[in-house]
């Protein structure tokens, strides 16, 4: 919208504007005054090097903000030079810097009906940000209200023509975007193929050759600038004559990486030799058409077309090319797929131009030379204490946030003039959400269930319906977007498509039904108001990765993702860390009807095992509620695809998400995912097969290689510590299910167990021989250093006959001989804290628990209470005044520990664990396939189609 048009619009609508409704705030009370604030010290270190990478002391945050959230905001978003008076030190300063800029722009551009409405808008926006109800994308926090250019967008789409000037300009524009810490995508299909002639008579280089130069440029900028990785997306149409070369480009480079690694070069992500490999700075995607996918189904031919004339210059077998796409994705996770006809069928501006590309994470899809401003809502904030979803408040917050997002375009700066013009004329926005996985679990819905998908569909429909409703209302006040008139019919057609999709949602319970009713009414208003006023925004919604801002909002899950794992790594304010069972788990168990005693036992099992399989008292039909992205019951590939399909019809853009497959997945499995993604109406899809990429470090250590091969090989092996000739032993007779036996356990001088003998069955019998062999195997392993805890974890709860009653008062029932033997060994040779976490107690301890509520005796309990109090005090605050009350989070933890229901969910983390990803490695016994953070050295975790660091908030490409 031009300045002239804006001025006329403002004059014509004088004294009109939005009436802002109060949602959370109280008249006459500033939102800051309703919060208890505490001061903290933020010190970040690279745990591998010990180097302090950031330090700012005495920062101010609400007492309910976690250590992680406050640390990430302090390090990432506070502006001003460290150690100076201009450095921000309080969340209040950060929020005021952003919110007051929005309020001023809203006033200047005629958005508010009165000054009172502007003040309510300011207070509501402030309250929602402080209470982690939503967050803007990172560029807003970086730039708004500073002397830097007011860039508010994280997502950019560029364009390139078939000329050297345009190609060189592509390199230049990408470079400026990377320098600012953002990413961009573009489609190279206009560039002539290597099979076509130039006007001079020579043969064209083809787009893949120019990708090499762009990749080198991105790699240079990322190594010299503030960001460690340039995020970019490169798209090529499936009918481009160079499509096979494009498809196989990164797979060939992956083969090179493997060869160089085997030759002794450092090829880990960030390794000194990885820079010699090409095409590693971009995500590649093939833009497939319906015609191509139908040819794949039919097994027919498909024509590759010249770029200038459009004539078919080569006929290929569609299935063969599809097979190459799937094989390359199997080998190295590239290329992804974008479904061109589906994307453009939902395009609101076809009269202006087709959608040809996306941003690097594939959620923003719009016109060339455009950008998108993102924000995400924290879904768990709308779940009431009675486990119902507050749809009315959710809709009001969406309308509040979309208003703020649109205002930002009025004052925003852009990296190129062309991007600025398109964004101002079409005003693309991308409101979305985070914490869907946590919401589903908390309400007792499995991520792969019909109920989970129904709830996701209803929420997404309400999200976009409410956004477009407010967009139509804004159009009636400050005018529709400049490109609306020429695209009005197409825009309204897409709105009707959304409404039809909403009508097809089948709700399964009261919660779904309530949200769906609000969504239905919102879409009715969209069509009515849109017909009258038009729309302020060409696009309204996407589902972004929400990596860094997800941590800012203390979300358990990012974007549309399921929960990463049931056990999380948590930092403490005073230093140190804890591993905790996700607090959504006990809430879900209560929702499913379990009693406190059952919840305690299940949570205890999860704390020990990391999963719910064989959890005591947990019904098998409830297992699916606790399925996660990783672990023993990981979400199936099609579970991810179907969840995306449930949300996609209600989004203006697409979904940033990677469909994870196990290492054992086949090329055919990936082909099925790609085919079903097309049939289910997705706009884009990326897959990742575990351990398919060499450049993802799988361990903490880096390989060290000398320049020349070294013949000497150093082999590290465990050393056996034999028992002394004379050692103390204890023999226990036992009976399990009427069958009798003897257990002899021998110890070192330190009383550590080093040998067992198990006598069961007649001498010379097969059973006796097996028991002797088993005893020797366990004894040798104990002497080589295998902890007794490992055997107790593996063999307790093992079920086989004989089983039943025993003659041991401490172990009254046993599910097998092994179950009894290792429970007895745990009681005799393991400390109280360790075996208590495993649920193994003596008869006296169980009786004490019934009388006092604690298994520990009075002396132990006093010491334990001091330990817990110390941890919780540290957990609460380190530098806060003595008068500051404990946070709600700490109070809840304290209450859980006091009642005994949360004891297993909170325990000190191992010194080798520095993130939730590493915690999962500990439980699974295998490395997580994710890169290390180059800032703080911790293992990152997936967020959409990117990775995000839990320790410092750094991402692998998305803001």
From TrEMBL:
<dbReference type="GO" id="GO:0071897">
    <property type="term" value="P:DNA biosynthetic process"/>
</dbReference>
<feature type="compositionally biased region" description="Acidic residues">
    <location>
        <begin position="859"/>
        <end position="870"/>
    </location>
</feature>
<feature type="region of interest" description="Disordered">
    <location>
        <begin position="853"/>
        <end position="887"/>
    </location>
</feature>
<dbReference type="Pfam" id="PF12637">
    <property type="entry name" value="TSCPD"/>
</dbReference>
<comment type="similarity">
    <text>Belongs to the ribonucleoside diphosphate reductase class-2 family.</text>
</comment>
<dbReference type="InterPro" id="IPR000788">
    <property type="entry name" value="RNR_lg_C"/>
</dbReference>
<dbReference type="InterPro" id="IPR013678">
    <property type="entry name" value="RNR_2_N"/>
</dbReference>
<dbReference type="GO" id="GO:0004748">
    <property type="term" value="F:ribonucleoside-diphosphate reductase activity, thioredoxin disulfide as acceptor"/>
</dbReference>
<dbReference type="GO" id="GO:0000166">
    <property type="term" value="F:nucleotide binding"/>
</dbReference>
<dbReference type="GO" id="GO:0050897">
    <property type="term" value="F:cobalt ion binding"/>
</dbReference>
<dbReference type="InterPro" id="IPR024434">
    <property type="entry name" value="TSCPD_dom"/>
</dbReference>
<dbReference type="InterPro" id="IPR013344">
    <property type="entry name" value="RNR_NrdJ/NrdZ"/>
</dbReference>
<dbReference type="InterPro" id="IPR050862">
    <property type="entry name" value="RdRp_reductase_class-2"/>
</dbReference>
<keyword id="KW-0237">DNA synthesis</keyword>
<keyword id="KW-1015">Disulfide bond</keyword>
<dbReference type="Pfam" id="PF08471">
    <property type="entry name" value="Ribonuc_red_2_N"/>
</dbReference>
<keyword id="KW-0846">Cobalamin</keyword>
<comment type="function">
    <text>Catalyzes the reduction of ribonucleotides to deoxyribonucleotides. May function to provide a pool of deoxyribonucleotide precursors for DNA repair during oxygen limitation and/or for immediate growth after restoration of oxygen.</text>
</comment>
<dbReference type="GO" id="GO:0031419">
    <property type="term" value="F:cobalamin binding"/>
</dbReference>
<dbReference type="Pfam" id="PF02867">
    <property type="entry name" value="Ribonuc_red_lgC"/>
</dbReference>
<feature type="compositionally biased region" description="Polar residues">
    <location>
        <begin position="874"/>
        <end position="885"/>
    </location>
</feature>
<feature type="domain" description="Ribonucleotide reductase class II vitamin B12-dependent N-terminal">
    <location>
        <begin position="42"/>
        <end position="132"/>
    </location>
</feature>
<protein>
    <recommendedName>
        <fullName>Vitamin B12-dependent ribonucleotide reductase</fullName>
        <ecNumber>1.17.4.1</ecNumber>
    </recommendedName>
</protein>
<keyword id="KW-0170">Cobalt</keyword>
<keyword id="KW-0560">Oxidoreductase</keyword>
<feature type="domain" description="Ribonucleotide reductase large subunit C-terminal">
    <location>
        <begin position="153"/>
        <end position="688"/>
    </location>
</feature>
<feature type="domain" description="TSCPD">
    <location>
        <begin position="724"/>
        <end position="827"/>
    </location>
</feature>
<keyword id="KW-0547">Nucleotide-binding</keyword>
